[in-house]
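User: Okay, second chain of the day. Same drill as before: sequence in, structure tokens out.
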Amino acid sequence: MNNDDLAPGIAPGRVLFVGAGPGDPNLLTLAALGALEEAGAVLVDSDELRRLLDHHQVTVDPEATIASFASTEQAPEAPLEARVRAIRTAAASGAHVVRLVAGDPFLDGRVSREASACVQAGLDIEIVPGISAMTAIPEYAGVALDRGGVHLINVVPSTGDASELGSAHLWANHGTLVVHATAAQLVDVHQHAVASGRANDEPVLLTFSGGSTQQNSRQAKLGELPRVARTLDPEAGIHVMIGTAVEDSPRDELDWFESKPLFGWRVLVPRTKDQAGEMVARLEMYGAHADEVPTISVEPPRTPQQMDKAVRGLVEGSYEWVAFTSVNAVKAVCERLEEYGLDARAFSGLRIAAVGNATAKALRAWGIVPDLVPVHEHSAAGLAAEFPAYDEVLDPINRVFLPRADIATEVLVAGLVELGWEVDDVTAYRTVRAAPPPAETREAIKTGKFDAAVFTSSSTVRNLVGIAGKPHSHTVIAAIGPQTSTACTEHGLRVDVVAPQPGALELVDALAAFAVERRAELLAEGRPVTKPSETRRRRKVVTA
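Assistant: Same drill. Structure tokens below.
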């Protein structure tokens, strides 16, 4: 490629070809996460790859440019010259450019040709290998690739030309073949495999949407592939496993992914992404797909003077304690300190209390280690129960700074006053009802497309019903504790799961336990194991 064919006058920059793995964001490597964090521009091929950037473990600079290569039904892939031109343009500023690609970069001939063209265009490149879908997806499907040798054939993306399926020597007539193809290419896969000497009755495993919570696997015989192809979307990507490993692998024992307790469940999480990170990660660990629907919006207080006065008092040493009752309270105080050009050193000499683990984690992220986190109950009442009484001998100052929401209860204030403290009860932020979610989400909530909904407070129940409507009776309702359960009941929701202890992770664990019990009951009754969105049957409340 001639440099004159590309955008003129653009200085070369550094480009990182980063492998994104098979599609599960949890399989992004540390190197990939680091590259994305430092990127000034990210270029992707598809919306699926772009969605990886929204994962709670992925950090991308808000000012970074994120772009997808244009595609149409007539031209599903941008030409090589256009891709390299876009990369070179993105590198003009000198910032790192991440070219995010599926799987492992150099197992895709299209990507390696793109990297070579970038070098010819004067760009400095670096390769960040990713986990290959060619080996990862069989493992996600419970197929052990240690039996009889493995031959890997990647024919996606393709132009539909059967010649792309490779030369005959690739199609070994022994061991295991792993082929990545589209449904439209299954007929050619069958023809090439049979031509290499494989029998039509050889076992085949077809895995769709591998590595995602929509993954499903179907067993067949090699000779059935042409018939199966006619029942599928021609563009659907499939991993086809043929031969020894499929026949010999004990999939009833190794099918670890699709047998997860919440596998394939669509779970409604009425919280924002920054609040729901741990909960979403736990749901994904159990195989669920979480949809976050914010039910509240956080806004500054209407009159900020009280907050400004309290922050000045914090810096000037007017308090003995600062008690944080939420992640939002931590964020509000820290942001106000940053506006004054201050950092965590402003808390020097103060004792810090956090209402629970999530709040404590937010403090630690800002460099502050809390002195008190309740052990028995992560709530305002729990914090009041474990807060030390004021001692006029040991405590030089008897004042506590309590930044909180405008709708917070008075339980903690009353408890601290009873212990002898003077409390500056300050509205640090306001919570208002969030805007309604998209129409598609509202429809899914009302019609039972969600398998479960997890509620972490009474306000999330009230606000969700207010902005999106009441979840369908088919949806499993999980509540973090008795008060939230009562709120669900008051709004006409039947509660199926109550966390044994008030905590987001405990709530998800209880939901998973419910799913395990539900599965066992269905199997004992000789019924198919369906998701809640696929059945009308209800279950008793589970509290552990």
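Residues 6 and 355 are 57 Å apart (CA to CA).

User: Thanks, on to the next one.
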